[in-house]
Fold this sequence. Notes:
The protein is 57% helix and 11% strand. It is of the alpha/beta class.
Amino acid sequence: MIFLDSWIWLEVFSKSGKWEKCKDIILSKTKKVISTIVIMEVKYRGMKKFGLKKTAEILYYIESDENIKIIPITTEIARAAADLRYKYHTKNREVSYGDMINLATALVTGCEVLYSGDDDFKAP
């Protein structure tokens, strides 16, 4: 299984940067996981970037794909995310709550890879 952050969806639908590679990942038959945070981020950023109609189409695509499992924030994920943020958040490296929820979701669900364009996941 793989985890797909909001970045990969926005990259594909805006056709910027690495959109073709991202598209191949999305279209692969590999089982995919996203958190409800990804839905929130795609909706918010999508509305600002694409408008309401296209964002609704993107969300429909994500939510209707049988190979994508949408995981809500459970107590286990919330606790794991807090532990991750405590471990990795420093004055020189500020990691967001949302990114730590996504990472915790990927870890709890057994994902082998987390695809993200966020600086939070780059080595210091």
